[in-house]
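hey so i finally got around to running both of the ones u sent me last week. sorry it took forever, my laptop kept dying halfway thru and i had to restart like 3 times lol. anyway pasting them below in the order u listed, first the sequence line then the structure token line for each. didnt double check formatting much so if smth looks off just lmk and ill redo it

first one:
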Amino acid sequence: MKAEILLARLNELRKDASEDPEDLEYLSLHHAFCFISYKISDFQAYLDDAFKNGE
């Protein structure tokens, strides 16, 4: 599984959420997207390990 595919889906969900800065769903998606974007290589390593183990 490629990290970019999951990141793209997360971005779609983020864009669909209300951009209300007090909405917990939007804040969760936005900050998860930003953090994973910043740590994309670490996220890819995590996915490689997770899918290798059948998760």
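and the second one:
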Amino acid sequence: MFKRWWPSFLGALLVAAAFIWVYVFFPVMAKLPADYEQNYYFSGTVQVLNSATNQLNPAMPVNVTRALKASGLEDDVLLLDQKITFTHAQAGTELPFGSEEVYGLDRTTRANVAGYGDISRTGQFTFPADTQKQDYPFWSATANQSLTAKFVKEETYQGLTVYVFQVDQKNINLGTYANTGIPQSGDFLINIKVEPVSGVPVYSDTTTTLKISPAPSVSMPIFISTIAYTSETIDEMVSTAESTQSLIMWASVYAFWIVVGVGIVFIGIGFFRNRAA
């Protein structure tokens, strides 16, 4: 009997193995790695308030580095150090606009996990794999709260199908300015293009405007930064998105259906062998 049915047994094992791979092993492999490290490079301009004239200084060219490096795991939550550095694009001197934070991330969803990192955060740190055409809350270190990245459209960018998201929120309360008691607020405009299978952001530009209100109905900008991915970072992110998309599709879709198909063929062979006998 076994000689007649062994193809069906083998086919059933192949089908079971395919499902176990997709629903058990692949999700573990798809997590952010414990040694995650990535640098993003931006260029643009910054304007700051001249306290002597109460006017913004002329825009200065800047280069910005966003350095991300995993520093450990706590209960499978990834601790990620982020260091943002501004330098003058011509002089090369570091400017006092940078920041350092420690995030605690869900390795699967890439969302902030409350209670981990240097402060408790909400929303996404970055887009998840299998990004959907929906709005996502994103944590902003400058705003110290989550802002909404709204889905705008689908388009083709650098040969990739991407989803375009935009954060456009104005007059976000930022407390008071430099212990003066003067109310401070911020406007945030961010455009992001994401390859949806991998969740890799292949383009990003950000305009941040910080304002003070020294008197009712008076709003005075004190800081404006406009930065975007450098062409080198765009090229790197497009390449990363292409390779990651291909890996995900082969590991979770194409290989799955190939193995399931082969398994079904073997199951059918077993049935036909049994009937013929």
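quick thing i noticed on the 2nd:
The longest strand covers residues 160-176.
anyway thats it, ttyl
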